[in-house]
Amino acid sequence: MARLADYFVLVAFGPHPRGSGEGQGHILQRFPEKDWEDNPFPQGIELFCQPSGWQLCPERSPPTFFVAVLTDINSERHYCACLTFWEPAEPTQEAVCTEDAAGREEEADAGGPVRLPPAAAVPPGQLFAPKTLVLVSRLDHVEVFRNSLGLIYTIHVEGLNVGLENVVGNLLTCIIPLAGGSQLDSVEDGVRTISLGAGDRQVIQTPLTDSLPISRCSVALLFRQLGIANVLSLFCAALTEHKVLFLSRSYQRLSDACRGLLALLFPLRYSFTYVPILPAQLLEVLSTPTPFIIGVNAAFQAETQELLDVIVADLDGGTVTVPECVHIPALPEPLHSQTHSVLSMVLDPELELADLAFPPPTVSTSSLKMQDKELRAVFLRLFAQLLQGYRWCLHMVRIHPEPVIRFHKAAFLGQRGLVEDDFLMKVLEGMAFAGFVSERGVPYRPTDLFDELVAHEVARMRADENHPQRVLSHVKELAEQLYKNENPYPAVAMHKVQRPGEASHLRRAPRPFPRLDEGTVQWIVDQATAKMQGAPPAVKAERRTTVPSGPPMTAILERSSGLHGNSARRLEVVRNCISYVFEGKMLEAKKLLPAVLRALKGRAARRCLAQELHLHVQQNRAVLDHQQFDFVVRMMNCCLQDCTSLDEHGIAAALLPLVTAFCRKLSPGVTQFAYSCVQEHVVWSTPQFWEAMFYGDVQTHIRALYLEPAEDRDPAQQVGEAAAEDERSALDVASEQRRLWPTLSREKQQELVQKEESTVFSQAIHYANRMSYLLLPLDTSKSRLLRERAGLGDPESASNSLLTSSMAGSVAESYDTESGFEDAETCDVAGAVVRFINRFVDKVCTESGVTSDHLKGLHVMVPDIVQMHIETLEAVHRESKRLPPIQKPKLLRPRLLPGEECVLDGLRVYLLPDGREEGVGGSAGGPALLPAEGAVFLTTYRVIFTGMPTDPLVGEQVVVRSFPVAALTKEKRISVQNPVDQLLQDGLQLRSCTFQLLKMAFDEEVGSDSAELFRKQLHKLRYPPDVRDTFAFTLGSAHTTGQPPRATKDKGPSLRTLSRNLVKNAKKTIGRQYVTRKKYHPPSWEHRGQPPPEDQEDAISVSEELEPSTLTPSLALKPSDRMTMSSLVERACCRDYQRLGLGTLSSSLSRAKSEPFRISPVNRMYAICRSYPGLLIVPQSVQDNALQRVSRCYRQNRFPVVCWRSGRSKAVLLRSGGLHGKGVVGLFKAQNAPSPGQSQADSSSLEQEKYLQAVVSSMPRFADASGRNTLSGFSSVHMGGHVPSPRARVTTLSNPMAASASRRTAPRGKWGSVRASGRSGVLGGDVGSRLAGRDMLAPPQANGAPPDPGFLRPQRAALYIIGDKAQLKGVRPDPLQQWELVPIEVFEARQVKTSFKKLLKACVPGCPALEPSPAFLRSLEDSEWLTQIHKLLQVSVLVVELLDSGSSVLVSLEDGWDITTQVVSLVQLLSDPFYRTLEGFRLLVEKEWLSFGHRFSHRGAHTLAGQSSGFTPVFLQFLDCVHQVHLQFPMEFEFSPFYLKFLGYHHVSRRFRTFLLDSDYERIELGLLYEEKGERRGQQACRSVWEYVDRLSKRTPVFYNYMYAPEDTEVLRPYSNVSNLKVWDFYTEESLAEGPPYDWELAQGPPEPPEEERLDGGAPQSRRRVVWPCYDSRPRAQPDAISRLLEELQRLETELGRPPERWKDTWDRVKAAQRLEGRPDGRGTPSSLLVSSMPHHRRSLGVYLQEGPVGSTLSLSLDSDQSSGSTASGSRQAARRSTSTLYSQFQTAESENRSHEGTLYKKGAFMKPWKARWFVLDKTKHQLRYYDHRVDTECKGIIDLAEVEAVAPGTPTMGAPKTVDEKAFFDVKTTRRVYNFCAQDVPSAQQWVDQIQGCLSDA
User: Would the pLDDT of 571 be above 70?
Assistant: First the structure.
């Protein structure tokens, strides 16, 4: 029984002691005046009665009522019911207010909460003060409180004739039952009717079980105010211990909301700060660091704004605001969605019927109270599902004297499959759950609704999941029970309480609330107390029972674990492997092991392994031999490697007994246990793991303690009972014991307590031993202290050792620093382990109630245990060192290039999978080649890994991955798991710019010093101090050493001496700005405005006069100079200039005026511009001495020179560096120098203008324009410092989207990026529209294609200067509109570098599979590589268009050696078909990239000096652009895509000298450019990549494009939109069979054994090759152009809806049509050809056959309207370069290519006779085939002509045909053997020899 009310208090308004205008509450009276003994009077009631502060009011407000909740120090809640009414203020109170009226006014201005207008406006008689009646109770009966206080107020207001003292006295002495209903004998006991003695009657119903919360309607109201999603997030926030704040203007609403939220949390209890109504004075409580649920009046919302981590729920506005920094974990799916849908069904029953055609007329909606219970029922079900099976994870640590229970969190999460779930983790770690375990874990106690639900209804809930109606009916059943709990007897709820009349508060009260007589009230209270003491105490009989455990838990969501869904087959493999191991079938076990290690990624297989191993342990020990031990340890390590600290309940727990059971004998008396080999796992150093294991074991032993069968039963009965007892859980046993406890005698109780304690104690000793086993390393002398376990070192980090020590990080540093110890003494390891064990022992023993004496004993024992164990380990360690090492596979030596030498011999490593799918067999299929076991070699040229897959199923494949040392871009130390025994190893990850990645783990035999040496050597080779130390140089030197020095006196100066003289002269003549070889920096801005002082001008002019040699006319050349000239003429540039008709040197020497351009030798000594070639093309009219001055205006002195001329329009393409701000003279300006008359800046700008003018004049169409080629009319003004005038025409090229919509002429599509930025409308046609000229022309093509060729306007400029926006700002335009500036935005080399880095990361290892993943595409987009290629192509196509229309173009970007080179080369490639041949492309690269000084060494970071600048692949980007064009025009290029990849690989490989150094000047300096004429080249290694390509082409047509069929006049205009660009497969493909295929000698494999005829005369054995995507370079293993064309035909057939035909029929028809069409003028398309629907300039697809003179040749062409004459030439070219593999599809005799055939006798192999065979010479396939007879279709053997070295006359040998002339014999010598042939007569023999010779010379 309990008191209904503890205290009745009257609180009134009183003045504030410090005289401020605010009042404060004063307690006028309280009853009883003495505190109850069991319940002291709560402090601070005055604050809580008026939470917004005490204030006077100008009018009477109606009375208010709310209930505040106070929590005392013992966490008891006190409910304060407050009824407030207003009375006229007394004068003293008013005085307080008027005094401070001014202060109030100020406060009102500041926005304070003030209800009081200025005092002047209020007549003194009309202020009202609040007065509050407060009832304090520990019970929560809100309605009774409301009625009782209302009655007291009514008596006062209505003046009823009832003594207030009696009513208050009765109220305080009213006693009611705590929890009634079923626990009481009759209705009268459960329902208490009370009367306060004023003719009133109230019925109080006590709930049936007091553990269920009472919510009335509060939950339903909360949902109505906030909605489902908001309430759910508040629910999750409260459970995961976040701060929740409610805001409302109503206090009652705040209390209800808080009450509702708490009711939802049942069965968990909220244990943090809970204040439903917080007074204004206590608002600072909100900044407390602990979680809370608090309600605050909405008037104070402003004060809550700056709280950063509080979730604010606004009840009036219906919103919940979650701050950014707060993350509320959501309920795990599928529970979240299920809960959400059930809640919506409960709240909105009509939702289900809304779509019905005939909805029922009425829907029965629940009352608000019922809906409230239904909502609670949904959450009750949710908790039952979340916590289902929780009782199976409770560990009974002690039963007597009090139960000690621990919850095994990890086991619970693991078995529910929710280890990763954030929400449940937080809930289980929270305080509320800890309270839940201690309260509900007890096995013997009263039960309630939740216990029933979680034990018995879970199966039903799972079954109902998909049936909403059944779920709803279950919810309704639960709601009924909850409702009945709150209202056990609905029938008797009758109240009769007087209420005041309407508007009674407005009537003038007769008098203020009277002071009550304390004595009377006290007397009533005392009487009641005396009576109570006389009555027997009412003892509540608790009905305690065993709490049901329910079914064992299941996973909340059966998740399939992806690839490793453990099928029965996998478990079978594990079982078989283990049985093989224990039966000694080691080979069988070895085969299965990789499959087992893969299967062990799945949990079921790991469980299976533990169970199987348990079966092989007898009497806690299993002695194995070495191999068995090795296998078992490897499987255990594999199992444990994925164990997180949360998985500890599962695998580690199952293996713990096993690691101390399996052992092997090392020597007599020395046994090694498995635990010494599995210590590396982090789980062993996790205190939580050991605690959970310990408690589990203790529970088992304590259960066994009480299950000992009693002695006095008869045996038969015992057996039956024992069987039943085995099934009883520890909780059931504990429950039974708790029930019996009170009945036991005192002695028996003591005995049980001692037994339990000794059980716990013995387990603690056992665990101290176990922990020392797993924590002490085998070699205790090292302080490796289990490397990653920093937790053992320092006591603070023990609890969260997992967080403080990351595995990877700690292995990377040295052990000492990480383990937390100063020095590596043995005792330190021991000390750390002792400390760790002691902390563990302390924790578990205090928790499980071990006495302090026992605990001290344990502390003494632990060091001894550790010391003993260390001693045994020393012997084990010593013996284990003596074991013979396991046989490792033999190291495979890599094949080296001639001249390549090994620097470091093989270090054993494992090559690990790096994310590329193919190597591990992913979606591309094929076995897993990685991880592979082998060695890494470092040579002078490459880093090479060779090895074999660790997976034996892959057979004997060799895995090779290598890349040139020079290509290394990033090297990073990593810490990885060794794939074999799963231990952590040091590793290295090397990334190269040839898109290879080596991710290696060093074998344990490789010491850290070897690995370090490898890194150092690698670094040394990657960045040699000088370019002479690179492989390309050292390679040649090996061959030239040992030759005597040759005398060179007699034949004039040799080239070497010449080049030295040349360099000396160059250095002399170099002029001022090249004294040091630094990059040129333009002068700073403030120096640019002033002209230079005169003396400096003089200095310059003097220097010009002093060095006449730079300006010598070419006729007066010295002999050495002439020699230089002749060698310069041989360079690529000159050959190309002559081809283009830009003049020869002779014409320049004799100054033939007819030519517009001449070759000038002005730079032959590299004096004017060091990075230009020696011979340059300049306008005829410009003198050599003017060039020096012009060059000063340009960066790096790279003045404009011609590099190409269009054969058709005669327009020229020029290139130069960007302009300086002014001429170089800007450098020499002093700050305040006086200005001389004609400044030098003017003169050089003038030279510049003259030069451009000369270029314009040299162009045939503009030379005769009326008098424009004079400069007389120009005022000479700077080109700099001048804003373009309104007449300037400036064209901007930038982002396509930027073309402004307001410009009518702004085009879209490709040309949208070219737009005018000058002022429009001043000149009639400004350049934007002129260049894109689209007003009256055809609309732009879709897809970014250029418009029709006639799109440029007739009035174009003669010369367009394409420059960087930033540079051209100040350039003065040409007044006569002859040249025009086109500023464009280009990227810098810096951006290329960063973009390439990102591209490298995206492509390696994120290599796209068949379907590129979104992540790959995203990272590709982030790299912006394709965007840069798009820009380059876009600018190049623009230039091509301009040149094609007859205007010349000067490309003048950056320093003129990066982007300029890219653009100029691309333009020439697109415009001139010659550059699309093999020879032309070589010329293009030599001319534009090598001669014009692209800085290969600098951009490729070839030497130590370039290391900081990093790798910037400008050339690779150019090759990528060419590749994009190649893809779009596959028939226009003579070279194959492989050629581009080859150059891409070797321009960084430093294998050849071609791409070393930064300019011709540097190459001459090193003597590279001109080899000695007399030098014998011989068979030495190629120094030049071109030489290598030539040699290789003779052997194989790998660089040749089979689809080459060019159109002679074709100018290519590729699409450049990013959507049209493809990722180059050079970036993503790889072949593991022989590494990158670009070093051809290595890629060919070892030479094949000579083929022999088989005895039965059958064909020679074919050598099979494994071909699958990542292992082999498939396109090379099966080059295949025909089938691609056939596929294309088939695709087009389906596209056109034709029925597919056999290709043979189509072929024959084409053949016939071609014959008919062989007339010279035949231009018609044969009807049988399929014409594709591509745009015209993308030419359609067709196949032609041209009958040739001998046999037939096949020519492939993709053009339908080309004359047959050109086809013939194309086909001859194609036939010339055909290869043996091209036509492997055509096996019928008819379609074979038989260039010459006949009978020959061939001698068999050794001791075999001569035989007549039918021989066929096939020039197309380049082979000699032989058959048994003429009509035989099956070839019996092949001689590949590529291998033939010589054809010589032969001699007859034994067994030769007798009748034949000796001269009819001839021998064919191949690289493998000599074939002896004999023809029928001498002429045919001669014919055969000629044919074969001819075939060889063709190749």
Answer: yes
Q: CA separation (Å) from 470 to 130, 356, 454?
A: 54, 20, 18
Task: Map residue 1745 onto helix, strand or coil.
Answer: strand
Residue 642 pLDDT class (50, 70, 90 cuts): low
Cα–Cα distance between 6 and 172 in angstroms, integer?
6
Q: Could you write out the three-class secondary structure of 646-712?
A: HHHHCHHHHHHHHHCCEEEEEECCEEEEHHHHCCCCHHHHCHHHHHHHHHHHHHHHHHHHHCCCCCC
Report whether 1556 contacts 1550 (CB < 8 A).
yes
Are 224 and 260 within 8 A, CB to CB? no
Q: What is the mean pLDDT of residues 1507-1524?
A: 92
Q: What tokens appear for 1709 in the block?
A: 């028809």
DSSP letter string over 455-521?
Answer: HHSHHHHHHHTT-HHHHHHHHHHHHHHHHHHH-S-GGG---B---PPTTGGGSPPSSSPPPP-HHHH
More confident residue, 21 or 439: 439
Question: Strand 1314-1316 relative to strand 1379-1384: parallel, antiparallel, unpaired?
Answer: unpaired
Is the bond into 32 cis (omega within 30 degrees of 0)?
A: yes
Largest CA distance in the chain: 159
* Cα gap 1220→1371, rounded to integer Å: 10
Give the C-alpha separation, 1311 to 1308, whole Å: 6
The residue with greater pLDDT, 1631 or 315, is 315
pLDDT digits (tens, 9 = 90+) for 1165-1199: 888 998 999 889 998 888 888 888 888 888 888 99
Token look-up 């929270």 returns: 430
How does 1487-1504 read in b/e, with b if 16+ C-beta sit within 10 Å? Answer: bbbbbbbbbbbbbbbbbe
CA atoms within 13 A on the CB side of 776: 33
Q: d(Cα 1305, Cα 1312) in Å, to the nearest integer?
A: 10
Whether the upstream peptide bond of residue 401 has omega within 30° of 0, thus cis, is yes
DSSP 565-599: ---HHHHHHHHHHHHHHHHT-HHHHHHHHHHHHHH
- Residue 559 exposed, middle or buried by CB count within 10 Å (0-12, 13-18, 19+): exposed
One-letter amino acid for residue 774 of the chain: L
Please give, one letter per residue, the 3-state secondary structure of 1675-1688: HHHCCCCHHHHHHH
Q: State the DSSP H helix or E strand holding residue 1314, giving kind and residue range, or none if neither.
A: strand 1314-1316
CA distance 1374 to 1275: 11
Task: Give the torsion sign (CA, 1863, 1868, 1873, 1877).
Answer: negative
Each residue of 1471-1482: b (16+ CB within 10 Å) or e? bbbbbbbbebbb
**Model confidence at 1603, in pLDDT bands (50, 70, 90)?**
confident
Q: What's the CA gap between 881 and 659, in Å, rounded?
A: 20
Judged by DSSP in three states, 950 sits in: coil
Token pair 């009257």 is found at 10
Rounded Cα distance between 877 and 777, Å, is 10
The structure tokens listed for 1763 are 């004359």
Is the model's pLDDT at 1445 over the cut of 50?
yes
* Residue pair 1366/1454 in contact by the 8 Å Cβ criterion: no
Which tens digit of pLDDT belongs to each residue from 1840-1850?
Answer: 888 888 898 88
For residue 1562, pLDDT over 50 is answered with yes
Whether 74 contacts 45, CB under 8 Å: no
CA distance 239 to 383: 12
In total, the chain counts a number of residues equal to 1899
DSSP per residue, 1577-1644: -TTPPP-SHHHHHHHHHHH--TTB-TT----TTPPP----SGGG----GGGT---TTTS-TTSHHHHT
CA distance 1499 to 1457: 11
